[in-house]
Amino acid sequence: MSVSRRTCLGLTVLAASSGMVLAAGMDAPPPELAGWPQPARAQGRARFRWLGLHVYDVHLWVPQPIPFDGWADHAFALELVYARALAGRAIAERSLVEMRRQGEIDRQRAAAWLDAMVRAFPDVAAGDRLCGLHDPGAAARFFHNGRPTADVPDPMFAESFFGIWLSARTSQPELRQALLGAPR
Q: Which of 57, 88, 132, 147 could pair with 121 in a Cys bridge, judged by C-beta atoms 3.0 to 4.6 Å apart?
């Protein structure tokens, strides 16, 4: 794949576009959540589009409802189901750009986080799932189609990564609204 095509595809992952709320019906929780002490339920889901192209559907799975603000203090899983093929490295690079929207990340930390995400995100095809589990104050764990890919035991990374979708500084406020619900 050429560099320009990979860059373009990477931009589709998280670039500014309109997120669209999906119908109320939810799929079954991903198998990665089978070990949770409480059954997982869907709090919200949305469709991410870029330039009109369906890129992925995102689901927020929770053991109990989490608030609009204060989400970082709760356990949850964010599941992305891709509608098209994307290079894993491009997903990681775009994720880092979006993480930087939330605050300054020094060069050394950014390099370590990018390396972790490159390990966590393989190339994806249409229908593939990437699932991230948030362990508040501790870590992020990643899976590709149910197979573990990486654990990142850094609470700052976990909050910044999941903030791509859930932070007040997200580039996709409509998507955040669809996942978390109305502010209380």
A: 88
Angle at 50 between CA 48 and CA 55, to 5 degrees: 50
| For residue 120, pLDDT beyond 90 | yes
Q: How far apart are CA 115 and CA 137, in angstroms?
A: 21
**41-50 vs 53-62, strand pairing mode:** antiparallel
CA of 153: how far to CAs of 30, 63, 79, 106, in Å? Answer: 22, 21, 19, 18
The total number of residues shown for the chain amounts to 184
Do residues 91 and 144 make contact, with C-beta atoms less than 8 angstroms apart?
no
Domains annotated for the chain, with CATH where assigned, are 3-180 (3.50.70.10)
Flag whether pLDDT at 119 surpasses 90. yes
Answer whether 117's CB lies under 8 Å from 92's CB. Answer: yes
Q: What is the pTM of this model?
A: 0.84
| Amino acid, res. 65 | P
Q: Give Cα 112 distance to the centre of its chain.
A: 18
The set of residues, in sequence order, having a beta carbon less than 8 Å from that of 138 and lying 6+ positions away, is 153, 155, 158
Distance CA 92, CA 115 (A): 8
- Asked if 142 and 132 touch (Cβ cutoff 8 Å), the reply is yes
